[in-house]
Amino acid sequence: MPDSNPDETLNELKDELKTIEIEIDNRNKRKEELKKDITELESIKKEIEKIVNNYKNVSSNFEQDKSDFENYAKTKKPMIEGVIEDSKKEAVDGIKNEVEEKITETKSITDNLAEDITAVNESFQDAQVFLKEKQDSFDSLKNYQKEIQMKFQNLNELRKSIEKYDESSDVEEMYFLILELENNLSKATIKTPVALESDLSNKWDEMYTAKENLRNKESALKTAQNNYEIKKQELESLKKNRSAEIMEKIGEL
């Protein structure tokens, strides 16, 4: 008996061609990605160079400005501290600390709300995956009839192959194919119409429950995001108005 036949060789060649086509397609996709990345990186490189060159022209001025302000503060602060009353100084320090503590507390709450978003978002994503699994399971069962028909079509092809090898008395091939037929036949479980209806109803119920769960997770995520945005805006406002609030309270002393 020959090691191969035209049909097997043809299938092997087709498989090899398909593999090569997939590899070519993947490499073409990677080629386009690289071209896009290179173009983007070249643009970013030029942008960075422009920013750095502009900064070089003014960085020495910044160093001088910083030195000037440090000298000013070093000179002016002792003069102010020499004339301000201790009680007034303590009052100003108290106001400053009070405002900054409020900012720190609000920042802590904002950070916690950001962590809540992360946790809720993970739960939301899990719910998305779970719903897809239930949707796929339900859709698969809806195609149960086609699936069974396909299995019997494959069984029929196996039977034809067995009969073909039987004509040439190729018992080794026949033996392998009959094992394949038995294996595939064992997987062809036939449901009754009543059982199929029950299974479809159960799968739909699981899918619907998963869908409701996803809606609840999505609502929780939106709530967490809204709470975060509200507190974030409050924090930004406190930071922005920090000096003005302190000065206003000092003016009331």
In short:
This protein is mostly helical.
Features:
2 domains; 253 residues; 6 helices; mainly alpha
Task: Detail the topology: elements first, then pairings.
Layout: H1 6-83, H2 86-142, H3 144-167, H4 171-186, H5 193-240, H6 242-251
Helix pairs in contact: 2-5, 2-6, 3-4
Structural notes for this entry:
There is one protein chain. This protein is mainly alpha-helical and 253 residues long. The chain folds into two domains: 18-83; 96-253, Orthogonal Bundle (Helix Hairpins), CATH 1.10.287. Helix content is 92%, strand content 0%. It contains six helices and no strands. Helix 2 runs antiparallel to helix 5 (193-240), helix 2 (86-142) packs antiparallel against helix 6 (242-251) and helix 3 (144-167) runs antiparallel to helix 4 (171-186). The longest helix is centred in the first third of the chain and has 78 residues, at 6-83. The chain is elongated, with a radius of gyration of 37 Å. The mean pLDDT is 91.
Secondary structure tally, helices: 6
Number of domains: 2
Residue share in β-strands = under 5%
* Main sheet summary: none
